[in-house]
Amino acid sequence: MQEDWNIILSILDSPDKSIVGQQRVFSSSPIILGREDNCNLIISDPSVSRNHSIIRITSDYTRVFITDMSTYGTEVSGKQVPKGRGSGFTLNNGDTIKIGTTVIRFELKLKSSVKSTMVGESIDRSFLDSPPPPETPPEEISEFSSPKESQTLEETKKGLNPIYIGIIIICILFILYLALFSGKS
Q1: Which residues pair with 53 in a beta bridge?
Q2: Which of 1, 100, 130, 132 shows the greatest Cβ crowding within 10 Å of its Cβ?
Q3: Domain range holding 172?
Q4: In CATH, what number is assigned to the domain containing residue 43?
Q5: pLDDT top residue among 83 and 155
Q6: Pairing of strands 64-68, 79-80
């Protein structure tokens, strides 16, 4: 089954010049970066820990984050990533990840079918920035209102709620039942 997303990691700079320019495409999470043979992206840089960093994507594809598991540190676009499990740092498209002296570019590619279902992608949120319209006070009915005005007000009050009608019908049927069958013993 093909995933709805791909993470592309491109090596921009490294002491191991043989890997510079390489791209790796991943479609499963987590992605482990480090020197160890069991890592998903093996980086032969002496300043990279065996299991240096872990990249994860959330199940709804709204966030990708990196966790620094190293002793040497990890930077994302010049910002230090907090160390240890449970301390994820959000990655954005085009961010550079520096582990040791190796620099990697991060990209997330989503299928168009996933993009169209993303919450908040193409929603106009400008209304959130504008103040609410002023409320107009309800019109007060004065003793001197014209008959036409009071008639329209009465017409709007006449409508009965269907729940009330149902309750009235049930009560009438119950009274009829009691009247017809309560006298027979």
Answers
A1: 33, 68
A2: 100
A3: 147-181
A4: 2.60.200.20
A5: 83
A6: unpaired
The answer to which of 51-60, 83-92, 103-112, 165-174 has the lowest mean pLDDT is 83-92
Q: Judge whether 141 and 151 are in contact, CB under 8 Å.
A: no
Taking the CB of residue 178, how many other CB atoms lie within 10 A of it?
10
How would you label 93-131 residue by residue, b for 16+ Cβ within 10 Å and e otherwise?
Answer: eebebbbbebbbebbbebeeeeeeeeeeeeeeeeeeeee
Q: Average pLDDT, stretch 99-112?
A: 89
Helix (H) or strand (E) holding 175, with range, is helix 162-181
Residue 34 CA neighbour count, 13 Å, CB half: 21
Q: How far apart are CA 81 and CA 97, in angstroms?
A: 10
Q: Alpha helix locations (H) across 60-161?
A: 112-115, 147-158
Cis peptide before 30 (omega within 30 of 0): yes
Q: How many CB atoms lie within 10 A of CB 39?
A: 19
CA 98 to chain centre: 27
Residue with tokens 């309750």: 167
Does 129 fall in a domain?
Answer: no
Question: Which residues are registered as beta bridge partners of 56?
Answer: 65
Q: Say which residue the tokens 């993303």 belong to.
A: 118
| pLDDT for 126 beyond 60 | no
Q: Quick check: is 36 in a domain?
A: yes
- Asked whether residue 170 is domain-assigned, the answer is yes
Phi, psi of 168 (to 5 degrees): -60, -45
